[in-house]
Amino acid sequence: TPEMIKRFAAREPGPGCDQLIVLEQSPAGADLFMRIYNADGSEVGACGNAARCVAWLIMQENAQQTCRIETLSGIIGGSATSNEWITSIDMGRPKFDWQDIPLAEEFHDTRGIELQVGPIDAPILHTPSVVNVGNPHAIYWVKSFSNYDLSGLGPLLEHHPLFPERANISLAIVHSDTHIELKVWERGVGLTKACGSAACAAAVCASRNKLTEREVKVTLPGGDLWITWREDDHIIMTGAVALDGIIELATS
Ligand SMILES: N[C@H](CCC[C@H](N)C(=O)O)C(=O)O
To answer: Which EC numbers characterise this protein's activity in its record (predicted)?
Structure first.
């Protein structure tokens, strides 16, 4: 139940976690179904970091080079790389229409929507890009993180009425046309060290807004991820399998 998940995630007892991942049989015939619970007990459709860990486990266990993982948002594809500790995930295609984010009202240009923070005449944050990469994201483009208290602004924006399913909120610095740096307030969790889906969201929005190339390195507090937004519209995320993220595999 959500209460049990909240207790587990809140480190009572145990190490705590940002997400709790439950692996089940896949009704769609994928290698398995990955059920994703946030620390607040909410169930969501994407978790990039977990996908890399779960793909690694499947491919190790079955001696496979590829795998398919079913999620609430559809089937994603895992593949091994030349480095056994690095996996790639095909996160599928981004959705940019306002109804697919989803937003509570119509916006024709989701490359930058009217959602400013602070005084109308001198907003401290404004014109975020929004996208759904299996889960909803809003990305604010900033020059530096030091001017913003994301732990204060995050929950306000996460729960903003414009996001009927809430949203993951990121601050993004574009260092070059191949390098983005992110700080993320995750829906249902809070500030985290890494968010794979936010890295995907920022990469496709930066490219769509002509701020970067289609292949970028995304630096998060917990490490780097490499995102390619392929010409066929699929988002490929490559990064280390954060094995320290697999505290324990509870087999039921
Ligand atoms: N908090 C996110 C789910 C986990 C995302 C993050 N852990 C990742 O690696 O993508 C959401 O509610 O959509």
So the answer is: 5.1.1.7
Q: Relative to the CA of 197, which ligand 1 atom is closest?
A: 10
Q: Is 47 a catalytic residue?
A: yes
According to the model, what pLDDT value does residue 242 have? 66
Has 205 been annotated as catalytic?
Answer: no
Q: What's the whole-model pTM score?
A: 0.94
CA 46 to ligand 1 center in whole angstroms? 6
Q: Does domain 2-83 have CATH number 3.40.250.10?
A: no
Does residue 48 have its Cβ closer than 6 Å to ligand 1? yes
Domain ranges of the chain: 2-83
> For residue 13, how far is the Cα from the chain centroid?
27
Q: What is the CA radius of gyration of the chain?
A: 17
Q: Which of ligand 1's atoms lies nearest the C-alpha of 198? A: 10
**192 close to 206: Cβ distance less than 8 angstroms:** no
Task: Find out whether 91 and 236 touch, Cβ atoms under 8 Å.
Answer: yes
Task: Give, rounded to a whole angstrom, the gap between the first and last alpha carbons of the chain.
Answer: 16
CA dihedral 208, 156, 40, 138 (to 10 degrees): 0
Complex ipTM: 0.90
Ligand 1 within 6 A of CB of 113: no
Catalytic residue among 47, 53, 67, 205: 47
- The protein residue with its alpha carbon nearest to ligand 1, atom 3, reads 47
Q: Which of 17, 53, 67, 195 is catalytic?
A: 195
Q: pLDDT tens digits, residue range 121-154?
A: 888 999 999 999 999 999 999 999 999 999 999 9
- Over residues 198-216, the mean pLDDT reads 98
